[in-house]
Structure prediction request, 218 residues.
Amino acid sequence: MMKRLFPRFRRAASAIGKDESGLAVIEFAYSLPILMALSLGGLETANLAMTHMRISQVAMLVADNASRVRTSIDQADVKELFAGAEISAASVKNFKANAKIYLTELEPNGKAAPNTGQFIRWQCNWGSGSFTSTYGATGNGQNDATLVNGIGPTDNKITAGSGTAVMFVEVAYTYQPLVSNSIFGPKTIHYTSAFNVRERTDQSLKNASGIANLCTTV
Prediction:
């Protein structure tokens, strides 16, 4: 009996040894974690790049549109500017809750030397993000030369010419990952932009409509 069974077991064992029908499944199981990591990492990388581009565009949009307001500017105009920024950043995850936009008006302070310099006449902000303006606040430089070189990054200071003003915008956004912060770590995306005011001679900020105050002014 055993003599008849042994050849059968041997043939069965040989057949199992040669069977490769499950090999692809095993190889896929081994490679799946690597494929998932590459796919999710690529997705997060693309989202981070798109978010950088969108935040940069928001900064430029707000500064450009603010500089185009003619004759005089009102807080109602500023509210519309921020509404436009929110629409432009609609594709950015939880933008308003994690972003802060500062719109700053910069102009010469009109003081004689040694107090000649630039000053911030008014500043407005929007968004619920935890961020304080990096480059100053309302009233800075009004009576002294603390902003003689203007505001902005150390290697790219912005100043306004005599008789005009500059709209300077900062946007900061705490990056919200699609997958996990463990891929790139916590990030704050920060961009600035500035445009010279066009055809506006009255640089003071009005509030004719009495809307909720978004700004501080001197």
In short: DSSP finds four helices and seven strands in the chain. The chain has a mean pLDDT of 89. Residues 23-67 form the longest helix (45 residues). The two ends are 107 Å apart (CA to CA).
